[in-house]
Design goal:
Blueprint lengths: L10 H36 L1
């Protein structure tokens, strides 16, 4: 016999839907930091 479905969705399903968006913004931020550091280092070498 199957269990009755819960009346509200579990928080885990909501979290799994929003996780890729959070991962994307985190990656963009780290890429920006790397690019910023690289340009700073290049500027120091050129000066």
């Amino acid at each position: 016999m199957a269990k009755p479905r819960p009346s509200r969705p579990r928080p885990l399903t909501l979290r799994s839907l929003t996780a890729p968006a959070h991962a994307h913004t985190k990656k963009v931020r780290s890429d920006f930091r790397i690019a910023l550091f690289a340009s700073y280092a290049l500027g120091m070498i050129m000066a």
